[in-house]
Amino acid sequence: MTICLGIEGTAHTIGVGIIKSDKGRCQVLSNVIKGYHPEKGGIHPREAANHHATYVADVLSDSIKKAGVVFSAVDLISFSQGPGLGPCLRTVATAARALSLKLKKPLLGVNHCVAHLEIGRGTIPECIDPVLLYVSGANTQVIGFAEGKYRVFGETLDIGLGNCLDKFGRSLDLEFPAGPKIEELAKKSKTYVKLPYSIKGMDIAFSGLLTAAMQEKKQGTSVEDICFSIQETAFAALTEVTERAMAHTEKKEVLLGGGVACNMRLRSMVETMAKARGARFFVPSRNLCVDNGAMIAWLGLLMYESGIRMTIEDSMINQRFRTDMVQVAWR
Ligand code: ATP
Ligand code: FE2
């Protein structure tokens, strides 16, 4: 068992990655990503699923071509089983089942959040036992391995930070996704306007921050100052929770994942915190941070090699597939 093809499709992105196991490390042969961008407003699950259905075959053949392999060389098919949007998950699961039956190769559904963590461990040799700060559109979680499972030490109580940024961006008529544009605008300011900093125990909330930012805009506060202040507030809260998780678990590594991890200000805050604790800071390359098929493929391979098997009947999607529901047999 060496080559695995993974299909990702929990939300905006349909992705197919092909990876090879090389002495226990992950070698990415190809990682093709195609995003769905709604013309107006937020993501509509049905439309995103239609997008995935339309492009999955093209993305598959493109990925096979880029990897320089033939379909018959693939040993295993894995797919994102959850958490995510129902219609998107069902579309991708259907494609994966069809491919598995056609190629007569085993099938494994994997947890999307755990895949974000494992791809860091698989591709960065020094990254062995990190606390993962996973920040994407829909998800914001601090995850670490403890007592046989991946556990969520802290998470958002309402929306993911990416969604918060995208919603604020929409109110400014910025194109989706707004995160990168907000980062640019934030660079033009150094004036902090006070926004609610909401941490409850180890959990975080962002909807109050979003409402307050919208309010500031209505009152005529400069857009650059608001963007700067949203970033400073939200990233500081994330860094605080991550640091507490590291202190609690006594882990000496921190890993970033998810689309928001592309943000240089977030990286620098977390890196500064890590340095101050004498811990190491890691961030995978951009294509492995955002939703992608390679991470799904890599986790599939780890699971398969640890003896986990799945029948077609077991491969039902789970919109609320929690990180700590995963049976971790490979660590
Ligand atoms: P998931 O299903 O994991 O929630 P997703 O569909 O939101 O994933 P990702 O590609 O992981 O996908 O993340 C996209 C999010 O990342 C968007 O909300 C986008 O605004 C945000 N983002 C991307 N680049 C940046 C950046 N430089 N700064 C801040 N946010 C960013
Ligand atoms: Fe993700």
Give short descriptive properties of this protein.
331 residues, alpha/beta, 2 domains, 5-stranded mixed sheet, 10 helices, 12 strands, 43% helix, binds adenosine-5'-triphosphate
The level of helicity is 40-55%
Flag low-confidence runs.
Answer: none
Across the major sheet, the strand order is: 3-2-1-4-5
Q: Tell me the CATH superfamily of the largest domain.
A: ATPase, nucleotide binding domain
How many β-strand runs? 12
**Binned strand content:** 15-25%
- End-to-end Cα distance: 18 Å
Small-molecule binders? adenosine-5'-triphosphate, fe (ii) ion
Number of domains: 2
**What CATH first level of the largest domain would be assigned?**
Alpha Beta
- How would a crystallographer describe the biggest sheet? 5 strands, mixed
Structural class estimated from helices and strands = alpha/beta
> What is the second-level CATH architecture of the largest domain?
2-Layer Sandwich
CATH topology of the largest domain: Nucleotidyltransferase, domain 5
Broad shape: globular
As a whole number of angstroms, the C-alpha radius of gyration is 20 Å
Mean pLDDT: 96
Please tally the helical runs, counting DSSP H or I stretches of 4 or more residues: 10
